[in-house]
Amino acid sequence: MLAAIFLILAVVLLGAIDIGNIYFVRRQLQRTADMAAMAAVQMVSMPAGCTGARNTATATALANGFAVDSTPAKTTTLTTNCGRWTTGAPAFNKDGTPLNAVQVQAQQFVQPFFVAPSFPNLGRTVSATATAYTTNIDQFSLGTGVAAINTQQSALLNAILTGLLGSKIALSVADTQSIAAANIKLGDLMTALNLGSMQALLATSVTYQQFVVAMAKALQSGGDTVNATILQTLAVNVPGSQNITLGGSGSTPGLLSLGLSNPDSAATATVNVLNTVVAAAQISQYNPNGTAPVINLTGGLTGVAGISLQLINPPVVAVGEGGLTPPIQASTAAANLTVTLLPVGLQPLDLFVAKVSAFSTPLVVSLKVAGGNATLTSVDCESTKAATTAAIKVTPSITSVCLASNASCSGSINVASISVLGVNVATLGLGSTGWLSLSPAPQTLYFNGSTGSFKTSQTINSNQLGSDVGNLTGTLLTALPNVLKITVLGSNFLGDILSTILSGLTNALNPVLTPIFNLLDSVLVPVLSLLGVQVGTATVNNQALTCGVAQLVQ
Question: Taking the model in full, what pTM does it have?
């Protein structure tokens, strides 16, 4: 009887030892899988890709005392899969792209301690799995970015905001310059709106006034009381306005394009205060049927009778990873703009026996500017900042331009009268050019940290003359020979003389019209730049590139 009791106790004791050993092995395997996954995931976005990740996982396991059994018995195995981790389901998808995660499974066959060697198959397989992910985030916007605000730009900005918000806005040059240099963390904005996650921030819908008040609170919490006070003056009620959803909603655009496996990773990303306020004002008046208000600007600009502006779409800042489908994309604003240029005094032109007198009708230049876009195609994180690169494909705004006597792109312009031997014999006019299209080709820009920072800007320029609207000037001048019209008063008896005059007029008018069209540089560039719009050129402002720290998620 006593022997039976001792036997039972021995069996229980041996079983407890074996069970304890299994738990010990499992803990060791979990440690191995964790460390292998953490090391491997840091390689997955590098050129070696998943092959490099698998090799790193195996080497890390070996360094921690876990050697893969290469014999047919395979008592220890290490399986490494690369894929994509997201907050949705399935959390880890080995077929997902772009790769941002590694899952490692370590297995070991464990035999009981007190089993005869003649029973090698008696035992159990113990395994442990670890999943680690890392996010490489680039933050960028497309547009001019205003480095310095002058008096003219400040006056234009006040006029634009007054037209959008329906309240008198009178920022000083210093105030405008101050908020143009200020930035807000998205995490601080999330807190100011009493939200608990980036997903909630993207989905929340607030009025323009509530949004700007929250921006002011975010600045205040960060110690920027000066710009917080300035923003309070812009926190006005906009009757009948469209609510603002940061991430967009349905057909309504948002301020931010976010493409991340874990949206909360964007909490440290920043947005520019001035750009965000102007974009929010645009969204407040956004209407997908194109009935946004037309803003009439009068800035006392030399040579300009008036400017009419209608906003179609606001700009969008992008924060995300490269290689997503659909890709993460920033965009410029889209707008319709009409500039009426005053007639410019012209000294009489002597063309053989004829004289051409001055302009008598204003020139109306109309533009339809579609939004340009910048697409993040890849982020390559390496061991140094100089070697770490973000590739962004940029397509400048597609623009249509028309020269006519009115904003509807119709009607002839009465340019001049022609006299021969002192007798007024003909009038010279310009017919409408019709809509002339400028369609720049896309280019790819590469950003790295060779200067020690990823905050930098690059510009592509499709203009022959090298300025934002230089291509418009060239396009309009090129169209002149096709729209010049001479109307003879009384008869056509001048025939060959008028033909000679017409052939000389093109060469004579080009140097006269060029300074008139050059007014577009001083008018359009500052207006459009404040709205994040460029014509013919595209400036990508890369604000930050962060190669994520690996973290275990499973």
Answer: 0.73
